[in-house]
Amino acid sequence: MTRQLLIAGSVRTPDRILGDAVLVEGTRIAAIGSADDLRSPSTVEVRYSGATIVAGLRDAHMHPVGYTAALQRPSLKTAADFTEICDILADALRRQAPGTAITALRLDDESLAELRLPDRHLLDAVTTDRPILLMRYCGHIAVANTAALDLAGIDRTTRNPAGGVIDHDDRGDPTGVLRETAFEPVTAALRSLSPPITSDHISAALTALATTGLTGVGAMAAIDSGLWGGASSELDVLLEAVARSPITLNVMVIARTPESLRSAADRIARAGARATFVGVKMFSDGSLGGHTAAMHQPFADRPGEIGTDRLDPLWAEEMAQAALDLGGRVAVHAIGDRANGGVLDLMERLIDQGTDSSRLRIEHASVLTETDIGRFGRSGITASVQPAFIASETEWLEKRVGPERILRTYPFRSLSNTGAPLAGGSDSPVEPPHPLLGMATARDRLGLVPTEGLTASEALHLFTAGAAAAIDEEADLAVGSTANLTVLDTDPVAAAPDELRRAEVIATWIDGAEVSVSGNTEAWQS
Asked: Which of 13, 16, 41, 380 has its CA 20 to 30 A from that of 255?
């Protein structure tokens, strides 16, 4: 069995420094302490001078196929206005094969000069012959051109689906803006026309994630084409790629029936050691950016709107029980305060029926009431949070929720004070899948209600043991633990938040082997 001694400036947990070296035997940690005490003639020494070794970083909530799609599809991230959107789409038309659909991602109306979403007429000016679909970066709103609407059979007579809204103009015609479930018919219609996201694309993207220090992720995967305009089943392509992934994928399945969930769990179990079934993922509402988060009171900047409810309680309880029967977890997306209250109601019923609260997660837990903050702590339900959201929303968040609710938006400190378990993630491709960025923002919040920030130790825990616990992994620096380690050029507890944002990952170790991090790190920035 190979013995390797990793020597750095320090080896640290969130709470203390354990020494300057980790002895790895095979895939396990054999000892931690002083290099002088642990070295031997038969041990290979690997030196990281001045670096800090921490437990492998985790992301409890990301979309691997969506992240990959963001690398393969045209991106609207840099578009300053409608003209630049049209230029990007025109370029995509020239580059893609004739007859294929154009799906562009990362649309952000808050950063456009027009400060609004485009409509089908703008997209029709680019082409009327080929379907176009733009996905807002949150994954909860899309904009389709007329050709795409026609393929999906959406016209002025089409009714809103359950949990979705088709926007109409003053004449009653669809504008092309589709909210929540309303864009699902379009993504289904474009599936055969969209350039595929292949297993090669996925495996390359997952390998690039090692450059961020991630050793395992909570992988959200839909049985169908999902939120990001993919061309095939997210789960299918993910399982094709998993054998070539250096990162463990702990899969939470987005499914519609208990039968399809059970089938997915069986397939994941047979996919190999790099994939595990973790549970079911459901949606109770939309996003703050898209005004579709379910709120008790109207949005401050749109007094007539209180968001969209997507969760049928009876269906949700049936799906939850199916996941629990499979040994999995229940994760429910909830952004608005009304949505969070409803999901807490559901989960408290499950607890009353005997469910272990550690098997229950609320994804995002973005806007909460004081009462519901306390309910997290009393119940032990995990708040799966994404601090990097703040970086994208700083300019408009208070405008959206108002001066009173902003105090209870992303309330990390208040949740932690109740004793609620917290797990850190990125929701990539919504945000870059870099845990160091998440750690930094969890601490300083970029100045947004700084009293809700976490300490440096808590932020490191958030993306190590906290995230790991939520995806059925362990992130211990202890003898006998799996040697999943991240080597940083700075001490993440001693570093200031801005220093952490500039920090570099020197090495990532998974199952006792170093994963190359010399590749292009621009991937996670897209």
From this structure: 380
